[in-house]
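To: structure desk
From: M.T.
Subject: fold request, one chain
Message: Could you run this one when you get a chance? Sequence is below, nothing fancy, just the single chain.
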Amino acid sequence: MRHQVSGRKFSRDTSHRQAMISNMLVSLLRHERIETTTPKAKEIKSYADKMITLGKRGDLHARRQALSALKDKDVVAKLFDDLAQRNRDRAGGYTRIIHTRNRYGDWAPMSFIELVERVAPAAAEKSAE
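Reply: Done. Structure tokens follow.
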């Protein structure tokens, strides 16, 4: 029995699962919206919220913790400079999951996971002009 054991295994060993979660976090923070299966989206939601909380803390130790988890200096810089500032007044709940469809082939439930305070692509292009 798995009493009080948190997290999903996804039929992967530990190193594969940790690498998958880290890569999905980097993609989510870089693009601010990704499509994945619903169980994976539910799993990385808490990790993403913790990373944004580290970004809001903003000290050197938090930056090193984020770099240890994400392993991408550009994404960590974006997290601490841009995403933390956008979410500074929000007390939590930095991500949302939007259920979309079932994937053809294996009928897996698919979802978008996105940042709540994200800049829409059309708005980003207009502000850049």
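Reply (cont.): The radius of gyration is 16 Å. Let me know if you need anything else for the meeting.
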